[in-house]
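// run 5 | inverse folding | seed 20
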């Protein structure tokens, strides 16, 4: 019973991880597109970069949850 719930939780985490990675890539593309414009909005770039960093932190947290603890 618990194995099924663990598998569902793991699947949900993997799904969330894929969404976050896509959002991170989308933000990266947006930052790059804005940066190459003739008059880039540096405030917007800064906000997007902070959002990217927050996503990266959440991605790292979920990856840590999915990685099994191996006792050496």
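// decoded
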């Amino acid at each position: 019973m618990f194995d099924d719930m663990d598998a569902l939780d793991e699947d949900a985490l993997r799904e969330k991880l894929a969404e976050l990675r896509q959002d991170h890539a989308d933000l990266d593309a947006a930052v790059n597109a804005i940066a190459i414009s003739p008059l880039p909005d540096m405030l917007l770039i800064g906000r997007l970069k902070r959002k990217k960093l927050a996503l990266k932190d959440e991605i790292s947290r979920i990856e840590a949850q999915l990685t099994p603890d191996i006792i050496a």
